[in-house]
Batch of 4 targets.
Target 1
Amino acid sequence: MNIQATDFLDLSLKMYDLAKKRDNLQRYIDRNHTRNDSERNENNEEMVKITDEIEETQKKMDVIIGDFGKEDKMVSKIVSKFLTADYPDHPDETVIPGITEKDVFSYYEGVKGKMLSELKGREIFVGIVPKGYKVGQKPVYVRHPYDKKTDYIHINSIEDFDKYNGGRVLEIHVTMPATAPYYVVDFDAVEDWPTTKKITTEIADMLEKLPEVKNVEIRFSGKRGFHTLGWLKKPKPVAQAREDLKEHLRNTFGERKDLVIGESPKGTKGALGVSPMKLNGGQVALWSLRVTGLCCVEVPRAQLAAFKKEDASFEKTYKLLTGKVFVPMKTKKSVNRIVNSYLDREAGTYPEVSEAFRTRERQMLIQPKPIKPTKPADPSEPFAKTGEKVWIMNDKGEWIQIPWSTKLEEIRKSSC
């Protein structure tokens, strides 16, 4: 049975909306039971209609559930599939205008190695875009991993990242730990773009002058403003860091007529927000995609004046991080993931394959023709079959041979 986990997610969201509508209507009926018969009949008819739609939606979910058994086990399997890295089931379906599932999948496939340093050790939530997204809507934010063993998602390795790259997970956000490693000012702008960059420069100037700050980093948020980080020489409790930062902002910008110190702009005044400066306060991860189609990118101070929003397009960001022109993947299955998974299961039979080897942006190929390398081959071709063994490049760039089992040969044939 081909389980479409994205369909299940859409039906789950629909079920939530219907249940909410039903409960609201029931509360209205309970509060206004003395109203006229005509209105009571209309409400009852609407309740029957909603109930029927809930039952119909549940039937569609049951079809997807199939024979998975108990609901809690089923949901785990469905969401596990949805959050397991594999080429999208509907690669050409639009996620947001101009970006398809295969674009999202391919982008993260290429840049995940660069994102890991930002994600390791952090509590994370992701933004999922279900079908039917309309411009201006927010993603569905999810912080629990599918197994619900922890309160937040954790991505500490390439394998962890792969679980969440399926084409519909668009945004990745980190949260602030109990001990803040940096100050962060979330500048939400309403003025013209040159003014936005000018004020961002002033925020960076303020942070650079603080004795407790060792260096400053400017990031375009991927929307309409910037996040300016002041990395602390000595991390401090997040509550203290928040109050200290607010005091610095008041001292520097408190008299400004074009700014407010708060989370939302007021009229034509931009907002200097500190919402990430609290325990588990959210902040978009560096290099993450956004619903705008742009990315959260680092902007060197010297390049800020010339920086344009279009410089943060996912194609330009991809090329910046990988050195390659963005080309969406077309393969239905990722051969190297299957191979790596098989090597993991056969631990002891095959030599250990290092983390460095696994992070080669998953662009390794099993070569269909026998090729015996006489010298280090192109890194994009780390597999080359010779007889009954396979040549494989280790993390030191050396070629070694491992047994080419019948099972691995079957995997190769089914995946090419």
Note: The chain has a mean pLDDT of 75.
Target 2
Amino acid sequence: MPCLCLLDEFGQNLLRLLETNRARRAPRGHRPLRGPTSTAESRAGLPGGHAVGTDTWTGTLVVPSLEFDLTPPTITGAVDKIVRAPRGIKRMRVTYKLDAADAVDGSVPVSCKPKSGSRFKIGRTLVRCSATDRSANTRTASFMVIVKARR
């Protein structure tokens, strides 16, 4: 008898990931997806209605000729920065540059708050940055911007 499988949220996300990665092949060294336990509900057409059962599985998903990107990008340039503000200035425009690279996607954008070019007040401000690749792997980094007043 045919089985219609209704996927749980994990299964639906896995199918989306497979669709996204279908045409791409990751470089060597990327490991197969090792997922948590998942539950699928199956309904088989039986006389008098549907029979419902639950099938639980754990293990490794291996898709021939497809490797999953499970490694987040690497962020470079997140180092503390000290700048001196001219006398009488309460806020100073500070710029910085961070880069992120992913083994599969190559260069990926980095977003930071506060943004580069923002006006930083005298004192210490924490800048938080993140980079996300096309497989939704995210890396975060932070650094301090220290604006010192001239005496």
Note: Confidence is low (pLDDT under 50) at residues 26-44.
Target 3
Amino acid sequence: MKRDWYDLDFRYLLEHPDFRAFRIYEQAKGFRNDLMDTFSEDAFENRREYICGFYRGEHGELYREYPYLTPQQADGFVAETVEKVNAIIQAALAVWNEEVPFTLEDLQPSQFWISEKKLKDVQAWFNPDDLKNFNPIPVKMLDGIPIMTDGHTRAVAALLAGKSAVPLTWDRDDLGWDLYRECVKACRERNITKPQDLVNRILPEEEYHEKWDLWCDGMRGEI
């Protein structure tokens, strides 16, 4: 597969000799690293010379059968990656502009159980036709993913009432993001990738305390 990938790179550069990104990189000579102590001062320049030399060097037959990675698959990967990067950039710009461009369906939970008691308390005041008393759900871009840092019970109450769009706000607090990463990881391991996945994970209070509160306490102790 690696050969296919490299040859497709060679082929792209052959067909696009004025590819702007590569030309800029090729001409970025003499960059001295004073940003990351992990790398030597000339690390970036060494890699630039190696990469550009490699792709300006000799190659085999490029118009051949690609058994492991076809040109169409490579183009699809690039297009999908560009779309995801653009979404991250747009989300970052939205933070700057005070907007949260998501609905509940787009958000990654950081909690994998819901308290039945808390849900009933929310449902007692929740009015799907009037959200002026709905405290916005806080959202944080964490590793490129919009995650809920709180408000999971309110989100489930809204979904059960048929609402997919509720007030959201950016979470600007400096929280323990290592803990949130572990919570998100635990959610994904349980196939919880959106608030809708929590609708069937509602527990009585005692069981909720055992399976969620105590889990959180244990995780805080490990971090």
Note: Residues 71-96 form the longest helix (26 residues).
Target 4
Amino acid sequence: MVESSLDSRRSSLDRRGTNVLSEVEGSANHKKVFMPIKHGALRQIRKTHKRTLRNKDVRSELKTFMKRMNSLIADHKRDEAFHLLPVVMRKLDQAATKRVIHKNTASRTKSRLMQRLAKSTPSASPTSGPAHTTASRAPQAPPAQAAPDRV
């Protein structure tokens, strides 16, 4: 009798060192409730929960900024969009640095945002400086150095 209860307990152990208590019903997604057996497993669950909440906040903030930028572009409010652009770029870079989103996703999002902003008005450019030409980018030879005088 004792052996069978130990076997059933061992079979209900999860790989994370947690004991599956039951499944919570009443929602569309049935979630398993874990009771940690080891202290390290309890610590991992706390860390995962904290990181999940932080990542959700960052993603929500990114979505809000992107919606705001898209509405400004759609309304042809170019000046306001250009003022908000550095903030959005910084938020995307920070999310990629913290690995909330992938760095390629951040880069792709920034690129598409810049393209949309450039298309919104015919003369819109993200930089206020003069247009670069290939002639101005040509590499220049370094200045010739005089030979040192030897006595």
Note: Residues 5-13 have pLDDT under 50 and may be disordered.
